[in-house]
Amino acid sequence: MAILSIRDKLAILSDAAKYDASCASSGAEKRDSRKTGGIGSTEGMGICHSYAPDGRCISLLKVLLTNFCIYDCSYCINRSSSNVKRARFSVDEIVSLTMSFYKRNYIEGLFLSSGVIRAPDETMAEMVEVARRLRVDEKFGGYIHLKTIPECSQDLIDQAGLYADRLSINVELPTDDSVQRLAPQKRPETIRQSMAKLRLRMEEKSEPTIQTKRKQRFAPGGQSTQMIIGADTATDDTILRTSARLYGSYQLRRVYYSAFSPIPDSSAALPLIKPPLMREHRLYQADWLMRFYGFEQKEILQASPNGMLDLSLDPKLAWALANRSTFPVNVNTASREILLRVPGLGTKAVSRILQTRRHQTLRLDDVARLCGSIAKVRPFIVTADWSPGGTLDSERLREKLTPAPKQLWLF
Fold first, then answer.
1. Separation between Cα atoms, residue 340 and residue 201, nearest integer Å
2. Rounded to the nearest 5°, which phi and psi values hold at 82?
């Protein structure tokens, strides 16, 4: 077996990490100025982007410790039966790479996941050791996100929480039946128990101690999870119901949806029931409505007889078109809760409207300056100088608000 260089390992394991959807990556075509002349290159070397609670974009080294795995999950490219090129980093190599990239200002943190080698405890111990070495030996103060393994010991999870900013445990699929069918070596009850224990540990550590009167540091960024969508026949309604339950039960910071694309050498007959990336996008939008806009899960899909989100419209606009009796709303008198349901008005725009209307009566031009685009908002609001009249009842309103398809340029 050929000995791989660090660069070779990084190419393999950063590419394998793209299926872990706990941060938002930006894509670019591969360009190499060394071959074509000029300045700058783009390569798939594991630099991705995540976002802090205050909106800052954080660059992360996103990589797997290894893509060897003892599990044979049908939807996973790194499953044991998959014919992919394998590699494995040592603890020293991950620590060295992270510090090297950080000192060059390439990254501000590390996102580390892994396949399971030999045993869950052995793999998790190496991931914890990477985080410990970075924090204790290298005095690294950047962001660290660890994907933890549900089957590992509680002691290792406790250690991980001391060094990582965020921990995540993959729920894998929307339903227990799907997990048992497509990932038979994993147990849904073990996953839930691990998530519950992690929540309890975070709550324990959030209480100030008697001696120091200070909270102990334990995964201050909370926990998140990842759900594969499209690998089974679960509807969007089922997925959102599962997400709502996860948020309520485990106080998650985020549920990440990962669109499944069929793997060429997969032996399992896995269905692809919707275009995966657009479906993923709509689920994120619906998830956002539940988390920040006061929508109940059952409201979002009330007008959908098949339990699937409309791919041609964002969920908020689809809800508004199905509930036209709620509109138009007067931006000068409506409550925050009602304004948040107006298509085209985000949380920041609504806050600006509430603040501005204390000092003046809002006109349509005022609302246009306070929101991103007035076109989507106009049919659903009333201002001092504007009323949509019969526009709201028009049968062609959906057509007017649906983006027209565009021909992409080939060159």
1. 35
2. -80, 140
Q: At residue 33, does pLDDT exceed 80?
A: no
Residue 231 lies in a domain: no
Best CA proximity match to 164, nearest among 180, 186, 140: 140
Query: Which domain covers residue 72, as residue numbers?
Result: 7-17+46-168
Residues 283/236, Cβ–Cβ less than 8 Å: yes
**Tens digit of each residue's pLDDT (9 = 90 or more) over 77-136:** 999 999 999 999 999 999 999 999 999 988 989 999 999 998 999 999 999 999 999 999
pLDDT band at 214 (very low <50, low <70, confident <90, very high): confident
SS3 call for 186 = coil
Check if the beta carbon of residue 236 is closer than 8 Å to that of residue 301.
yes
Please state the rounded mean pLDDT for residues 164-171. Answer: 95
Q: What whole-number percentage of the chain has pLDDT above 90?
A: 70
- For residue 133, the domain's CATH number is 3.20.20.70
Amino acid at the residue 352? R
Residue with tokens 């085209």: 344
| 332 within 8 A of 338, measured Cβ to Cβ | no
pLDDT score, position 74:
93
For 362-393, give the DSSP string.
Answer: --HHHHHHHSS-HHHHGGGEEBTTB--GGGGG
**Residue 75: inside a domain:** yes
Other C-beta atoms within 10 Å of 126: how many? 19
In a domain, 183, yes or no: no
Out of 108, 134, 168, pick the residue that ends a domain: 168
In a domain, 374, yes or no: yes
Contact at 8 Å (CB) between 176 and 182?
no
Q: Which of 126, 151, 168 is the last residue of a domain?
A: 168
| Residue 410 pLDDT greater than 70, yes or no | no
Q: How many domains does the chain have?
A: 2
d(CA 64, CA 46): 10
* Residue 34 reports pLDDT greater than 70: no
